[in-house]
Amino acid sequence: MIFVDSSVWVASFSDRHPHHEASRPLLAGLRRSRSGCAVHSLAEVYASLTRLPGESRAHPRAAMQFIERMQQHTTIITLDGGEYFDTIDAMSRRGMTGAVIYDALILACARKVRAERIYTWNLRHFRAVAPDLAAKIMTPAE
């Protein structure tokens, strides 16, 4: 299974995004049976699309329609309460702070489905959060 981070989805939305052209081919080839994204990514994509600068900003309904397409093309992966707690605990034990927890939750979903490849435009944070998965974490341009 391939796993797609929120940053790739957001990049594919607007042709004004610097990573738009590199993200589109990856997403065009997604099939629900072979690809996944974290349930948290749905909220992250909505928040990002509805606060993009200027003309790139999505109307809330357009953002929701985009999220519906996400759901049509990927399996939405969830964590149960224990997995959620364990992920936060692991980050606290490593002394990691702030918004990196959201990357950790996304990566916990990727780990849960034993993703073969994890696509993101946030390589540095993802590899710092999950060094054991570093070889599987890449950009769509790779």
List keywords for this structure.
7 helices, 142 residues, five-stranded parallel β-sheet, globular, alpha/beta, Rossmann fold
Could you give the topology of this structure?
Blueprint: E1 2-4, H1 6-13, H2 20-28, E2 35-38, H3 39-49, H4 60-73, E3 75-77, H5 81-93, H6 100-112, E4 117-119, H7 123-129, E5 137-138
Parallel strand pairs: 1-2, 1-4, 2-3, 4-5
Helix pairs in contact: 1-2, 1-3, 3-4, 5-6
Give a brief rundown of this model.
By secondary structure, the chain is α/β, with parallel strands linked by helices. The protein has one domain (2-138): 5'-nuclease (Rossmann fold). The protein has helices at residues 6-13, 20-28, 39-49, 60-73, 81-93, 100-112, 123-129, and strands at 2-4, 35-38, 75-77, 117-119, 137-138.
How would you characterize this protein structure?
The mean pLDDT is 94. The protein starts with a strand and ends with a strand. The protein is globular, with a radius of gyration of 15 Å. With 142 residues, the protein is α/β, with parallel strands linked by helices. It has a 5-stranded parallel β-sheet with strand order 3-2-1-4-5, with helices on both faces. The chain is 53% helix and 11% strand. The longest helix is centred in the middle third of the chain and has 14 residues, at 60-73. It has a single domain (2-138), classed as 5'-nuclease (Rossmann fold).
